[in-house]
Amino acid sequence: MAIGLINNTILKPSCSSSSSDEQSVILVPLTIFDKATFDLHVAVLYTFKPPMPSNEVMKEALSKVFDHYPHLAGRFTTDNQGRTCILLNNAGIRVTETYVPTTMTEQLPFDPSKDVSHLLPPTEGVVELFQVQLNRYACTVDLLSVIRLITVSPMANPRALSLLRGLGLYVGST
C-alpha cells in the first residue's frame, strides 16, 4: 500500500523548555541498566478515536512533553571518560506526517506479523532518540507510530504519552 508523505521535520522543544544558559552543556551518562542491554528500536502503534486532534495540535503537545522529558530531544555522545551519554541539547525529535489513502476498516483485521514498516518511522541512519509518525487515514482514525531506542527506556518513559492525555488528547489502542 502506498502512502503519501505530507511532512518530515525535526520538532524542537517549546520555548519554556529552552535552557536559559545556552552555553551550558549537560551530559547524562547511561545507567548500568542501559549498559546491560543491547540497542534495539522499539515500535509502538497507537490509534486515536474521533474527534481527532490536528497534526499541529499533536506536535504542540509533543513539544510540551520535552519540558518533562528533555532526554527525548537529546542526542547520543561520548564524554571525556569514553562513556556513552545523552547530550541534552534540545536538538528535537523527528516527526513524519503521512496520509494513508485507505480506511482503517480496510486494514482490519490488523495482523502485526505482516509488513507494517510503511506505518513506522525509519530505524536506519537516524540520530534522533525518539521518532513519531502521524498517519492520517481516509476515515476518521489516526495512527500514531512511535520508535524509540530501548537503551534509553528509563528516560524515554511511556508516561510521556500519558502527558498527551493530560493535554486533552486521547491516546489508546483499539
Write a short abstract of this structure.
This protein is of the alpha+beta class and 174 residues long. The chain contains four helices and eight strands. The protein has one domain: Chloramphenicol acetyltransferase-like domain (Chloramphenicol Acetyltransferase), CATH 3.30.559.10.
Defining key terms:
alpha+beta; Chloramphenicol Acetyltransferase; 5-stranded mixed β-sheet; 8 strands; 29% strand
Q: How far do the termini sit from each other?
A: 21 Å
Instruction: Assign the structural class, choosing from mainly alpha, mainly beta, alpha/beta, alpha+beta, or little secondary structure.
Output: alpha+beta
CATH secondary-structure class: Alpha Beta
- Count of DSSP strands: 8
Number of helices: 4
CATH homologous superfamily (4th level) name: Chloramphenicol acetyltransferase-like domain
Helix content: 10-25%
Average pLDDT number:
75
Low-confidence stretches: 150-174
Helix and strand string, N-terminal first?
A: EEHEHEEEHEEH
Q: Architecture, CATH level 2? A: 2-Layer Sandwich
Largest sheet: 5 strands, mixed
Question: Could you characterize the architecture of this molecule?
Answer:
Helices cover 16% and strands 29% of the residues. It is of the alpha+beta class and 174 residues long. The chain has a single domain (4-14, 24-167), classed as Chloramphenicol acetyltransferase-like domain (Chloramphenicol Acetyltransferase). The chain has a five-stranded mixed β-sheet with strand order 1-6-7-8-3, covered by helices on one side. Strands 2-5-4 form a three-stranded antiparallel β-sheet, with no helix packed on it. A hairpin with a 4-residue loop joins strand 7 (130-137) and strand 8. It is globular and about 55 Å long.
